[in-house]
Amino acid sequence: MRRLYAYLLKRRLIDREVLSTFVRAGLVYEDEKYHNAVFIGKDEHGVVRHAHKRSTSGMGKTFRINVEGSDPRYSFHWNGTSDRLYVFEAPIDLLSFLTLYPKNWQRHSYVALCGVGEQAMLWMLEQAPGIRRPILCLDHDAAGIEATGRLKEILRERGYSETAVLQSIHKDWNEDVKARCGLEAQSAEEHPQLMAAPEVCKRVCAMSTTVKLDRLNNEVPQLIEQYRSHLHWGRFDQAMDCMEQASALAAAACRRELRQLGMAATEDELTKLLCERIRPHRNRGSLKKPLQSARTTVPKCPRLGRCRRAPNPRGEENSGGQMAGSGRRICGRPYPI
Q1: pLDDT digits (tens, 9 = 90+) for 77-114
Q2: Which pLDDT tens digit goes with each residue over 232-287?
Q3: I need a labelling partner for 107 at 20 to 30 A (CA). Which of 147, 208, 293, 335 fits?
Q4: Which long-range contacts (CB under 8 A, 24 or more apart) does 17-20 make?
Q5: Which H or E run includes 135?
Q6: Are strands 164-165 and 133-136 parallel, antiparallel or unpaired?
Q7: Residue 110 parent element (H or E)
């Protein structure tokens, strides 16, 4: 166990008492052949069903893997008695969090997903119906933010309305431990879509005050078709412009409905509402399905024609007289919402 303790205590700065508790419970050990740190997950009967290995050597590339045959439902975890379940990406994140916040930690439940899959989290909740307060503590980077959004939706579908989110100050909880000890720590990474959202949503809401809704059912399908065509041919400026105009029409329709209901929203209030509804984890992969969904949501236009262009606060035109957007691409997609 010498290399295990040296790695986790000296390099990872894990609290000795926290680590020893998991070692005595048979949940952490050092493999004999390669001296890897092994994090164990047991089922409700105490049978080992999951093992996650991580290299302890400072030489070469970091090695970490779930052992073949492991059941993802039973990854590294701790069962407490309170109504809280803290969810992490990796075992070292979990141990780092306990190092930072050791007071009465054994009362609560904790699980390391050994990735971002939801299986272990859901199994913990099934085994302990008394847990009503899941707390997502995933990495403070783009991947962690997307995974957090996806897991929140899964929990909401299962009736967990009190799900909370805790983010580390730096990239992950072990980086926070390093920073507390005065060492250099890797900075957090905000999601690029969320960083761009305030500017884009403000622009869309400003455009929504000038558009006319008399041809809404025709213009939105046309804009979607033009967006698809521009995207196919790599004309990202024009694609961005089409999507912003379609969004502005939708925002204008929303404002009209709110006024009719006696709930008129200001431009700032609508901007805030749009920003809050951005879901980065849904804006991944192919645009084919989202486009098909949008095309079936609104009436299909009889033919693809040149639609009326909404005024654009950016005031930019290309050589063809069409309004052109900034062309900024966000996570492989030209528009964040």
Answers
A1: 999 999 999 999 999 999 999 999 999 999 999 999 99
A2: 899 999 999 998 999 999 999 998 998 999 999 898 999 999 998 899 998 876 55
A3: 147
A4: 17/102, 18/95, 18/98, 18/99, 18/102, 18/105, 19/95
A5: strand 133-136
A6: parallel
A7: strand 109-112
Task: Please say whether the beta carbons of 41 and 120 come within 8 A.
Answer: yes
DSSP-assigned letters across all residues of 311-329: P-TT--B-TTS-B------
Contact of 336 with 247, CB cutoff 8 Å: no
Angle at 212 between CA 207 and CA 217, to 5 degrees: 110
Q: What's the sign of the alpha-carbon dihedral 56, 59, 60, 61?
A: positive
d(CA 323, CA 238): 7
* Strand order through the sheet with 28-30: 28-30, 37-42, 48-54, 64-66
Other Cβ atoms less than 10 A from the Cβ of 75: the count is 28
Alpha carbon of residue 95 to chain centroid: 22
